[in-house]
Specification:
The chain is of the alpha+beta class. The protein has helices at 9-13, 17-26, 41-47, 57-64, 79-87, 100-104, 119-130, and strands at 2-7, 30-37, 69-75, 113-115. The protein has one domain (2-130): Nucleoside diphosphate kinase-like domain (Alpha-Beta Plaits). A four-stranded antiparallel beta sheet has the order 2-3-1-4.
Length: 131
Protein backbone atom coordinates (compact mmCIF):
# COMPACT_ATOMS: atom_id res chain seq x y z
CA UNK A 1 0.00 0.00 0.00
CA UNK A 2 1.09 3.57 -0.60
CA UNK A 3 0.07 7.06 0.35
CA UNK A 4 0.92 10.69 -0.31
CA UNK A 5 2.60 12.58 2.54
CA UNK A 6 3.82 16.17 2.51
CA UNK A 7 5.77 18.45 4.81
CA UNK A 8 4.13 21.84 4.37
CA UNK A 9 5.95 25.20 4.04
CA UNK A 10 5.88 25.87 7.79
CA UNK A 11 7.57 22.53 8.51
CA UNK A 12 10.25 23.16 5.87
CA UNK A 13 10.83 26.72 7.09
CA UNK A 14 11.21 25.53 10.69
CA UNK A 15 13.82 22.91 9.70
CA UNK A 16 11.67 19.93 10.71
CA UNK A 17 12.31 17.86 7.57
CA UNK A 18 14.81 15.44 9.14
CA UNK A 19 12.78 14.93 12.31
CA UNK A 20 9.56 14.25 10.39
CA UNK A 21 11.20 11.88 7.90
CA UNK A 22 12.86 10.04 10.81
CA UNK A 23 9.47 9.48 12.44
CA UNK A 24 8.07 8.01 9.23
CA UNK A 25 11.07 5.71 8.79
CA UNK A 26 11.17 4.70 12.47
CA UNK A 27 7.58 3.44 12.07
CA UNK A 28 8.90 1.04 9.44
CA UNK A 29 7.61 2.81 6.34
CA UNK A 30 9.62 3.28 3.16
CA UNK A 31 9.80 6.59 1.35
CA UNK A 32 9.88 5.46 -2.27
CA UNK A 33 9.60 8.89 -3.92
CA UNK A 34 10.57 12.27 -2.51
CA UNK A 35 11.08 15.76 -3.87
CA UNK A 36 11.34 19.32 -2.67
CA UNK A 37 9.20 21.65 -4.72
CA UNK A 38 7.26 24.88 -4.65
CA UNK A 39 3.63 24.16 -5.47
CA UNK A 40 2.12 26.27 -8.26
CA UNK A 41 -1.21 28.00 -7.77
CA UNK A 42 -2.81 25.66 -10.34
CA UNK A 43 -1.54 22.53 -8.58
CA UNK A 44 -2.64 23.89 -5.20
CA UNK A 45 -6.15 24.61 -6.48
CA UNK A 46 -6.36 21.09 -7.94
CA UNK A 47 -4.98 19.51 -4.76
CA UNK A 48 -7.52 21.33 -2.57
CA UNK A 49 -10.38 21.20 -5.11
CA UNK A 50 -12.80 19.60 -2.61
CA UNK A 51 -12.57 22.84 -0.57
CA UNK A 52 -13.03 25.29 -3.47
CA UNK A 53 -16.44 26.49 -2.24
CA UNK A 54 -15.33 26.99 1.36
CA UNK A 55 -14.37 30.40 2.76
CA UNK A 56 -10.84 29.25 3.68
CA UNK A 57 -9.94 27.97 0.17
CA UNK A 58 -7.89 31.01 -0.90
CA UNK A 59 -5.99 30.96 2.41
CA UNK A 60 -5.16 27.25 1.88
CA UNK A 61 -3.86 27.95 -1.62
CA UNK A 62 -1.86 30.99 -0.46
CA UNK A 63 -0.25 29.08 2.40
CA UNK A 64 0.67 25.92 0.48
CA UNK A 65 2.27 28.00 -2.30
CA UNK A 66 4.15 30.29 0.13
CA UNK A 67 7.35 28.25 0.16
CA UNK A 68 8.87 24.87 -0.63
CA UNK A 69 7.28 21.60 0.48
CA UNK A 70 8.60 18.05 0.69
CA UNK A 71 6.30 15.72 -1.28
CA UNK A 72 6.63 11.98 -0.65
CA UNK A 73 5.25 8.62 -1.65
CA UNK A 74 5.30 6.43 1.45
CA UNK A 75 4.75 2.67 1.35
CA UNK A 76 3.92 0.02 3.93
CA UNK A 77 1.16 -1.98 5.64
CA UNK A 78 -1.93 0.09 6.48
CA UNK A 79 0.09 3.15 5.50
CA UNK A 80 -2.85 5.55 4.99
CA UNK A 81 -4.29 5.08 8.48
CA UNK A 82 -0.90 4.71 10.15
CA UNK A 83 0.44 7.96 8.66
CA UNK A 84 -2.79 9.72 9.70
CA UNK A 85 -2.19 8.52 13.27
CA UNK A 86 1.47 9.57 13.14
CA UNK A 87 0.41 13.05 11.93
CA UNK A 88 -2.15 13.62 14.69
CA UNK A 89 -5.40 15.58 14.56
CA UNK A 90 -5.73 18.38 12.00
CA UNK A 91 -6.23 20.94 14.75
CA UNK A 92 -2.98 21.03 16.77
CA UNK A 93 -4.88 21.72 20.00
CA UNK A 94 -6.58 18.33 19.54
CA UNK A 95 -3.44 16.48 18.45
CA UNK A 96 -1.96 13.89 20.79
CA UNK A 97 1.47 14.69 22.24
CA UNK A 98 3.98 12.49 20.44
CA UNK A 99 2.22 12.97 17.08
CA UNK A 100 3.86 15.26 14.51
CA UNK A 101 1.16 17.91 14.85
CA UNK A 102 0.96 17.46 18.62
CA UNK A 103 4.67 18.17 18.91
CA UNK A 104 5.25 20.75 16.16
CA UNK A 105 2.09 22.38 14.78
CA UNK A 106 1.28 25.86 16.02
CA UNK A 107 -2.16 26.60 14.57
CA UNK A 108 -4.90 25.01 12.48
CA UNK A 109 -3.82 26.53 9.19
CA UNK A 110 -0.11 25.93 9.86
CA UNK A 111 -0.16 22.29 10.88
CA UNK A 112 3.19 21.16 9.41
CA UNK A 113 2.10 18.08 7.40
CA UNK A 114 -0.52 16.68 5.05
CA UNK A 115 -1.37 13.04 4.44
CA UNK A 116 -3.97 11.41 2.24
CA UNK A 117 -7.16 10.45 4.11
CA UNK A 118 -8.07 7.38 2.01
CA UNK A 119 -6.66 5.03 -0.62
CA UNK A 120 -8.66 6.92 -3.25
CA UNK A 121 -7.26 10.34 -2.27
CA UNK A 122 -3.76 8.80 -2.01
CA UNK A 123 -3.98 7.65 -5.64
CA UNK A 124 -5.28 11.06 -6.75
CA UNK A 125 -2.64 13.02 -4.82
CA UNK A 126 0.24 10.77 -5.86
CA UNK A 127 -0.86 11.24 -9.46
CA UNK A 128 -0.98 15.04 -9.02
CA UNK A 129 2.48 15.28 -7.48
CA UNK A 130 4.44 12.46 -9.15
CA UNK A 131 3.04 12.03 -12.69
Amino acid sequence: MKTFFMIKPDGVKRNLIGEIISRVEEKGFQITKIKMMTITKDLAEEHYSEHKDKPFFSDLVSFITSGPVIAMQVEGENVVSQIRTLMGATNPSDATPGSIRGDFATELDKNVVHGSDSDKSAARELNLFFS
